[in-house]
Amino acid sequence: MRIRVTVAAATGALALSALAVPAAQAAEGPGATSAARSVVADAVKTPADDSRGDTAISNVVVNGGKDIVLGTTTKKTFTVSFTVKDNSGVEWAQAILWHGPDFDHLDGGAVADSSNGRATCTKVNATTSNCKSAYTVKADVDLIDSLAGSWKVWAIAQGTDGNYVQKDNVKGFRIQRLSKLTVNASPEPVKKGKTITVTGALTRASWNSGKYLGYTGQSVKLQFKKKGASAYTTVKTVKSTSGGALKTTVKASVDGTFRYSFAGTTTTPVVSATGDYVDVK
After folding, report:
1. Same fold: 2-177 with 179-278
2. How confident is the model at residue 104 (pLDDT cuts 50, 70, 90)?
3. Looking at residues 43-70, what average pLDDT do you find?
4. Domain 2-177 maps to which CATH number in 1.10.12.10, 2.60.40.10, 3.20.20.80, 2.60.120.10?
5. Secondary structure of the chain as H, E, C letters
């Protein structure tokens, strides 16, 4: 069964040119084939949660629980794993990744790398299988900037008795634009009590342009680690301006290392600059 959904085909977005849920392999018994086909057709046409019987999906994990972070040309393969239970045994399962306000208005998505889009399910016991799918994305081919942020996992699974469960959001995860952060403290060396100017820039990957562009209007912490100390402390918070530029001043007191640190957003990961050491005379 194949239901076509055209998604951002003209923009280069990570797209579902064909959002497909293959017809299930039917369990033996009268009416099983037609029941299985009905399950798949209804699931694709009606993305709201639906189920019949005791089939359950649990323990969904995307990319090992970590955000998926991509630079301008990054190619990455990651996995989605989940557990399926049905008292008759597990027949098949599939997970589809999607982005948008809801499944009816998605603007990007991905099916698994497998030829039929299904997960590979490994039997644990008579009622339980562990299922896994791999997905490959290349930033400069599959993504546009507006697709950064929160994504969701749509999933369906069917038991050998024709029971099924279908969820339009079994797990949320994030695809993010790789961030970079620089720092420069000057002058070096500096006399005690004199002014140190600390500059830098916060940038992030633009999948649209293939460049790293300034991330403006963001709160970034200036941190300092005294010579011999093991940890940084926050001195002040600075807002990034045009081009992601950062600039502030502090008074020289003791030898140590300055850095900028950014806490991240939904679309952009945490990043800290490599520290710049200042010798105070």
Report:
1. yes
2. confident
3. 86
4. 2.60.40.10
5. CEECCCCCCCCCCCCCCCEECCCCCCCCCCCHHHHHHHHHHHHHHCCCCEEECCCEEEEEEEHHHCCEEECCCCEEEEEEEEEEECCCCEEEEEEEEEECCCHHHCCEEECCCCCCCCCEEEECCCCEEEEEEEEEEEHHHHCCHHHCEEEEEEEEEEECCCCEEEEEEEEEEEEEECEEEEEEEECCCECCCCEEEEEEEEEEEECCCCEEEECCCCEEEEEEEECCCCCCEEEEEEECCHHHEEEEEEECCCCEEEEEEECCCCCCCCEECCCEEECEC
